[in-house]
C-alpha cells in the first residue's frame, strides 16, 4: 500500500512538472499592418523617433539604427 502511494505521488509530481514546462505554440507568422504604419507602443507600429547620447558623447538616433536590433535598458541609480 505504501509503495502504491509513493508511485502515485511521483506520477503526480512528474505530471505537474511536465504540465508546468509546456508553453502555448508560437505564432508561425507575424501580423502585417494594413495601411500606413504609424508610431505608437503597439505591435506593428514604429517606435517614436528619439535621440540619445552614448557613453562616448556621440549622439545616436533611433532612425540611424533602422533595420538593426535595438535593446533599451531602463534602469535607475536610486
Shape: elongated
Over the alpha carbons, how many angstroms does the gyration radius reach? 24 Å
Mean pLDDT: 75
Structural class of the helices, strands and pairings?
A: alpha+beta
- How much of the residues is beta strand, in percent? 5-15%
Task: Report the end-to-end length measured between terminal Cα atoms.
Answer: 59 Å
Strand order of the largest sheet: 1-2
Largest sheet: 2 strands, antiparallel
Order of helices and strands: HEE
Q: Fraction of residues in helices? A: 25-40%
Query: Using DSSP, what is the number of strands?
Result: 2
Uncertain runs: none
Structure, described:
- The N and C termini lie far apart (59 Å).
- The chain is 26% helix and 8% strand.
- Strands 1-2 form a two-stranded antiparallel ribbon.
- The chain has one helix at residues 2-21, and strands at residues 51-53, 59-61.
- The mean pLDDT is 75.
- The protein has 78 residues and is α+β, with helices and mostly antiparallel strands.
